[in-house]
Amino acid sequence: MPPPTLVCITGRPGAGKSTLAAALATRMSWPVTHRDAFVAGTAAVAPDGSIDHVRVNTAFFAVVASHLGHECSVVADAAFQHPVWAAALTALPAATDVVVVRCHIDPATAAGRIRQRVADDPLRTRVHNDAAFLSSTAAEQAWGMLSLPYPTLDLDATLPVAQLVTTVTAYLATR
Asked: Which of 9, 57, 59, 174 has a Cα at 20 to 30 A from 42?
């Protein structure tokens, strides 16, 4: 039996990671783990709505590891920069087949997508500090993409999601 596969979908905020991850997981019939879901769930039970990001990240990676430990392939998405992904991935079971999908998008387009999400979902501000992110220099700086010796697929995140899913599934089929 081949080892389970972890598809790590990464990129800057606003790149469309969660949209791609959900569509890919549906196509592959695999579970998907979104870091944003852990953020929202943590904020919902915190009396003051605060978010302990270390706890959130620990829970996110524990769920990913649980899937893999039970020989279940999984799609995981998060806007982690290299250091967070690298530390967690090196702790995974050795038999895991890791594939990295890096979603590239220019900062201005990503910022526009974030502003649209805020307009579409005013409750989003409870768990995402989009205003602070957009007003900081981080919104315009280069994103610290994951760079480890795993098979890596770089995507133009402005392409239609269906096209991106087809590209990723074709890539996975060649492995």
From this structure: 9
Query: Does the pLDDT value for residue 118 go beyond 70?
Result: yes
Strand partners, 78: 10
Average pLDDT over residues 130-151: 74
pTM here? 0.89
pLDDT higher than threshold 70 for residue 29: yes
Superfamily of domain 5-173: P-loop containing nucleotide triphosphate hydrolases (3.40.50.300)
> Considering Cα of 106, then 126, then 58, then 74, what sign does the dihedral take?
negative
Interatomic CA distance for residues 116 and 113, integer angstroms: 5
Q: Which residue ranges make up each domain of the chain?
A: 5-173
Distance CA 162, CA 14 (A): 17
**Cα–Cα distance for residue pair 54/71, rounded to 1 Å:** 26
* Residue 141, pLDDT score: 65
